[in-house]
TrEMBL record:
One Gene Ontology biological process: nitrate metabolic process
Lineage: Eukaryota, Metazoa, Chordata, Craniata, Vertebrata
Main location group: mitochondrion
Transmembrane segment boundaries: 20-40
Localization, UniProt: Mitochondrion outer membrane; Peroxisome
PROSITE patterns per UniProt: MOSC
Subunit structure: Component of a complex composed of cytochrome b5, NADH-cytochrome b5 reductase (CYB5R3) and MTARC2.
Organism field: Sciurus carolinensis (Eastern gray squirrel)
Listed name of the protein: Mitochondrial amidoxime reducing component 2
Residue intervals of the MOSC domain: 172-333
Amino acid sequence: MGAAGSSALARLGLPAQPRPVWLGVAALSLAAVALGTVAWRHARPRRRRRLQQVGTVAQLSIYPIKSCKGVQVNEAECTAMGLRCGHLRDRFWLVIKEDGHMVTGRQEPRLVLVSITYENNCLILKAPDMEQLVLPVRLPSSNPLHDCRLFGLDIKGRDCGDEAAQWFTNYLKTEAYRLVQFETSMKGRASKKIFPFVQNYQVAYPDCSPILILSEASLEDLNTRLEKKVKMEYFRPNIVVTGCDAFEEDCWDELLIGDVEMKKVLSCPRCIMTTVDPDTGIIDRKEPLETLKSYRLCDPSEKQIYKSSPLFGIYYSVEKIGNLKVGDPVYQMVE
């Protein structure tokens, strides 16, 4: 009984009643439970990850137009949909046929010779035997939208105008083409529709994911097996890492670079695009793909995912957006 209850009994001339034993025990029990709960909350295993440096960023590349040349940058913002530097966005532009189907270096290998620079809110496109094309990055909303088709999935794209369409048509000389631009207000391709078993994210016009990482050591290892050496440009990664062993990137699940957190999606299954020479625009159809197939096929348990494609580089999703730059340490986040 509390002090107020004892005083009331005294005023009535009644003896104070002793506090029941069970009440004290109950109070102690409740206190113990409360303390135990607090202790349990503090004792629960938190997901504390330590950082282990696995390499350093050697190169950052943005590929504004799918299958065209990349633009190397010293630093970039890493958005949920890939690298960005000013108005340069990774694979936000796409060449299409008039029916909306994508066109890449697989069908038109000379696309890899189209170079891109950025000046005064415009992309400047150059290609062999062509006048340069000046392409504004902000398109009029009156430009029509196209229903585009990438690897069997639908996605929108805003038409970049007749001048751009004529430029690519004249350059490639095979059929009529148009250029479209992805806008952030549009819905990207959902990762679950590309690979049902991966984490949720969206992409514009990349094949599979917002970020592709490859190490210098892996390329060096491949070149020891080739008669004709190949350059990193054959493989078109966004982030090149130095200071690690060959294929060490196969084991990197979660990464921290700058203040960007990334999570592995899957290995990059390589196709005939790797046989397009980035300096000549000629498709070989054999190397380096055949050599990669000789030693970089997947484990049999993963054949339903990768089939007969060799693996070279790792796809990542962006779990925490931020900024990164050449020279940044690459940390693996481990439990």
